[in-house]
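stage 2 :: seqdesign
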C-alpha cells in the first residue's frame, strides 16, 4: 500500500494537479478533524447538549467535516501537550470563567502549540493591565491586539467596514450597537467587521470579527443575534460557514458527507410507536374501531412501498393483555412483514431540527449527534429533520409541524445541502385526518423527488462512519480516505472546475457537481480509497463513471464498453453513468445468476448512459452493461 501511495503521488504530480490557483497549502499527513470545545458549565448548565457550541455551532462544524469534543472548563483542563491532536480549540463564553488566571495560563501555553484557537463571544477573562499581554498572545492567532478599552452603546459609533460575505448572514447589526471591546487589527488575513469609535475617541477603530493565520475572533453580540423570547429566534450575525472555513483553514479539504449517496440526496423515514393502539378518528376507520397503527399501514406504508420505513417498536407499547393486545401485535407483524419496513436496532434522539418561516435560522437544525448523559457512553444519532406533531401520553397537540417540514427540507438542501430528507412521524398520525394528510403529502413529495432512499439504520451507520473516518493528505491534491465505515461520499466545497481524476484515484466510482460543490462517490468494497483532484479538463478517463443513482452501488468494474456492479435499494433502480461509448448497450440485471431483466439503452450526445431497472432491489442485484457492437465483434 505504501508503494501504491508513492506511485499515485508521483503520477498526480506528472499530471500537473498541484499548485492550483486559489487552493491553500495543506499539511501532509493525517488531517486533524477534532475540535476541542470548552464551555463553562456554570454559565450553561445541563451539560454539553445545552451549550451554544452544540446547539448553534456544531451543525456547521459537522458540515465542514469536523467532530467536536466537549470539556467543561470547571473540570481540570487537558494537558497542553495533548491538545495538539485537535485542529482547534473553540470557546463561546458569555462572561469571565470561574478561574480566569488558570484558564489564561493554559490558553497561553496552548497558543504555542500546533493548534488553532477560535474565540466566539467573550474572551473568558476581564482584560486588565496584569493580563493584557497574555490575552494578546492569544488574540495574535487571529491577527488582533486588545487595547484594554471598552465602549458602551452609543449612537456615535459607526460601521467603517464590513465584509458582506462574512457578516449579516441571518440578521443585521442594530442601529445602536451594543458594548464592544477596542481591538486593533495587526495582521488579520480577513476582517469581517470594523467600527469607528465616537468622535471623542479621535477616530480610533476596532475590529470585532477577524480571521488570522491560526484562528479567529468574533466579539460577543457581534457573532450571533442572541435569542430573546421566543428562545428559538436566535440567528447568526457572522456567516459561520465562511468564518469557520477560514479560521480552521479547511479550504480545499475533503469532507466526509452524511447527506448524499450515489450522487443523490438521501431519504430515510422513521416511524415511532407513540399512539399505536389509539382508535382512529378518521372517517372510514373510526366506526369499526381501527387503530392508528393499522391506518398507518394501510395509508402510508403499503401505498408508498417504494420508500423505506424504519420502525422503532419497543415492547412496552403493546397492551399487556386482552383483545387489544392481540390486535396491536397482529398489526405490528403485518407492518414488519412489508418488504420496505425494517425494525431499527439503533436509538435516535428526536431533538428539534427545523429551518422554516417560524424557525428561520440554521441554528435550529440539529448536529449529527448528541452526547449521552453518562460519561463514556456513546453518542446518540439525532433525527436529521424533525418538525412533526408533538405528542404526549394523552392526546395529540394542536400543532401540526409537518406542514413546515416541506420548507425545512427545501431550505436544508439549498443553497447548502445540510441534511438528508428525513420524515419522522409517530403511529398516532393515523388517529387524526390532518396529520395523516400531512404525512401523505410528504411521502408523495419524497416519491417524486430524485432521492436515494435508505433505511434509518443505514443513515446512523453513515453518521458512525463520519466520526471514525481518517483522512490523510498525500500531497498534490491527493487524499487517502480510510476507516470510513458506511460513509461513501466525499464532498469538496468550492470545487470550481475540479474533478476527481478517475485514472489516478482508487475506489472512486463516480462524481457529480451540484453548483460549486463536488460530490465524489466511493466504492464501499474498497478501503482505503484514494481521491485525486484535477482541474485540467483532460480527455475522459476511459471508463464509465457514476453520476447518480437511486440505489446504493458497490463492487464496480468498468471500462468504456463494459460495466458491472452490485446495487441495492428501494423502488426502481434509476442510474446515470458518464463516459459511455457511442452505440447501444445491452443491460441486464441478475440475482444469484438468475436473469431478472434485460434491455438495450443508448447514451446521449454527452456520453451519459441512463437506464432504469424495474425490479425489486431490496435484495442485492448484479447489473451488467455491455456495448452491443463490441459483443458482436
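stage 2 :: out
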Amino acid at each position: 500500500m505504501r508503494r501504491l501511495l508513492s506511485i499515485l503521488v508521483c503520477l498526480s504530480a506528472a499530471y500537473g494537479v498541484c499548485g492550483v490557483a486559489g487552493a491553500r497549502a495543506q499539511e501532509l499527513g493525517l488531517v486533524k478533524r477534532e475540535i476541542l470545545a470548552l464551555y463553562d458549565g456554570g454559565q450553561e448548565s445541563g451539560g454539553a447538549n445545552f451549550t451554544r457550541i452544540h446547539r448553534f455551532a456544531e451543525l456547521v462544524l459537522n458540515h465542514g467535516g469536523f467532530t467536536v469534543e466537549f470539556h467543561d472548563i470547571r473540570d481540570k483542563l487537558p494537558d497542553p501537550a495533548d491538545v495538539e491532536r485537535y485542529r482547534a480549540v473553540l470557546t463561546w463564553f458569555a462572561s469571565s470563567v470561574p478561574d480566569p488566571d488558570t484558564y489564561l495560563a493554559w490558553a497561553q501555553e496552548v497558543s504555542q502549540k500546533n493548534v488553532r484557537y477560535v474565540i466566539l463571544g467573550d474572551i473568558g477573562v476581564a482584560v486588565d493591565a496584569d493580563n493584557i499581554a497574555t490575552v494578546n498572545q492569544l488574540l495574535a492567532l487571529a491577527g488582533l491586539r486588545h487595547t484594554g478599552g471598552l465602549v458602551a452603546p452609543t449612537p456615535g459609533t459607526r460601521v467603517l467596514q464590513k465584509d458582506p460575505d462574512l457578516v449579516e448572514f441571518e440578521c443585521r447589526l442594530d442601529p445602536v450597537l451594543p458594548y464592544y471591546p477596542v481591538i486593533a487589527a495587526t495582521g488579520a488575513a480577513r476582517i469581517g467587521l470594523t467600527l469607528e469609535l465616537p468622535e471623542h475617541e479621535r477616530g480610533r477603530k476596532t475590529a470585532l470579527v477577524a480571521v488570522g493565520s491560526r484562528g479567529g475572533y468574533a466579539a460577543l453580540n457581534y457573532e450571533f443575534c442572541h435569542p430573546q423570547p421566543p428562545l428559538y429566534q436566535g440567528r447568526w450575525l457572522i456567516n459561520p460557514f465562511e468564518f469557520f472555513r477560514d479560521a480552521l483553514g479547511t479550504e480545499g479539504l475533503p469532507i466526509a458527507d452524511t447527506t448524499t449517496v450515489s450522487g443523490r440526496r438521501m431519504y430515510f423515514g422513521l416511524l415511532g410507536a407513540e399512539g399505536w393502539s389509539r382508535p382512529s378518528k378518521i372517517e372510514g376507520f373510526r366506526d369499526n374501531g381501527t387503530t392508528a397503527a393499522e391506518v398507518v399501514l394501510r395509508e402510508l406504508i403499503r401505498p408508498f412501498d417504494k420508500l423505506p420505513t424504519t420502525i422503532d417498536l419497543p415492547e412496552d407499547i403493546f397492551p399487556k393483555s386482552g383483545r387489544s393486545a392481540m390486535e396491536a401485535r397482529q398489526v405490528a407483524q403485518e407492518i414488519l412483514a412489508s418488504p420496505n419496513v425494517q425494525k431499527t436496532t439503533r436509538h435516535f434522539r428526536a431533538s428539534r431540527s427545523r429551518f422554516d418561516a417560524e424557525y428561520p435560522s440554521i441554528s435550529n437544525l440539529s448536529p449529527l449527534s448528541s452526547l449521552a448523559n453518562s460519561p463514556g457512553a456513546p453518542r446518540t444519532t439525532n433525527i436529521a429533520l424533525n418538525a412533526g406533531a408533538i405528542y404526549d401520553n394523552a392526546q395529540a397537540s394542536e400543532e401540526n409541524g409537518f406542514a413546515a417540514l416541506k420548507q425545512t427540507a427545501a431550505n436544508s438542501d439549498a443553497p447548502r445541502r445540510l441534511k438528508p430528507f428525513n420524515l419522522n412521524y409517530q403511529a398516532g398520525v393515523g388517529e387524526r385526518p390532518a396529520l395523516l394528510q400531512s404525512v401523505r403529502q410528504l411521502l408523495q413529495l419524497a416519491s417524486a423527488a430524485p432521492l436515494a432512499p435508505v433505511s434509518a439504520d443505514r443513515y446512523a451507520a453513515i453518521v458512525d462512519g463520519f466520526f471514525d473516518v481518517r483522512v490523510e493528505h498525500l500531497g498534490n491534491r491527493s487524499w487517502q480516505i480510510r476507516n470510513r465505515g458506511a460513509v461513501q461520499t466525499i464532498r469538496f466545497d468550492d470545487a470550481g472546475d475540479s474533478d476527481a481524476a478517475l485514472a489516478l484515484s482508487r475506489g472512486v466510482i463516480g462524481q457529480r457537481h451540484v453548483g460549486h460543490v463536488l460530490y465524489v462517490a466511493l466504492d464501499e468494497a474498497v478501503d482505503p480509497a484514494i481521491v485525486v483532484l484535477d482541474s485540467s479538463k483532460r480527455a475522459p478517463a476511459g471508463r464509465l463513471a457514476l453520476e447518480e443513482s437511486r440505489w446504493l452501488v458497490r463492487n464496480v468494474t468498468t471500462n468504456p464498453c463494459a460495466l458491472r456492479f452490485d446495487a441495492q435499494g428501494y423502488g426502481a433502480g434509476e442510474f446515470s453513468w458518464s463516459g459511455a461509448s457511442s452505440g447501444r448497450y445491452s443491460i441486464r440485471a441478475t440475482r444469484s445468476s438468475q436473469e431478472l431483466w434485460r434491455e438495450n439503452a443508448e447514451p446521449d450526445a454527452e456520453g451519459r448512459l441512463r437506464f432504469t431497472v424495474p425490479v425489486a432491489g431490496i435484495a442485492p442485484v448484479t447489473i451488467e452493461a455491455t456495448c452491443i457492437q463490441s459483443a458482436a465483434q
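stage 3 :: structure notes
- Residues 1-24, 389-399 have pLDDT under 50 and may be disordered.
- The first helix runs from residue 2 to 14.
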